[in-house]
Amino acid sequence: MEICKRLTIVDLPNKGVGMVALEPISKGDVIARWFPHDKRTIAREVKSLEVFEKELSAIEDANERSIILNHSWPTSDGRIVVGARDGVFGCINHFRIPNVIHTFDASVWTTTACTSLNPGDELCYNYNLGSQYDVRTDKFMIGFLALCDSHGVQKRPSLGMTQPPCHLSEKDLLLHVHNNKPLKSSVPAPRQDNGTTDCTVW
After folding, report:
1. Handedness of CA 96, 101, 105, 110 (dihedral sign)
2. 185 touches 3 (CB < 8 A)
């Protein structure tokens, strides 16, 4: 990942973790770039929903199955992508009116501010512009959502991710910065043909 602005990951009320700005960010500014071939962004791909379901059924720990489902999403071409467990791309939460936009290209995803952000503002993206859980009605998406439902994992933003972006006060921001260091860039080495992921996932 290439972090272009000062950001940090913090615990947010009723949201779990989220990503917040540590400096003013202007509309149109590039905030970060993410590399899908870097295993710190995408851990792996699964070639079909059937294979993914078999893999899950072989895992005895229900919590582990839930974690995997929460870090996974279906592509438009019938694959399942499993995001990196400790990756920070997935820490950008959903809101229907986003303040950041992701642009997905095969070798790089770019996150850009679509409104101005102040220090302490949480970054939010509309998941229905990407994964389209509430939008897609194809058999593959329906099957993926049914699998998630069967394990008690809710992926539809409209049913569980309706809170607007949080804002941390200056006092809270200073406290969080003391406990959570700003994100650092970790730009990966040039891509090698070693089986790592390189795809436009939406």
Report:
1. negative
2. yes
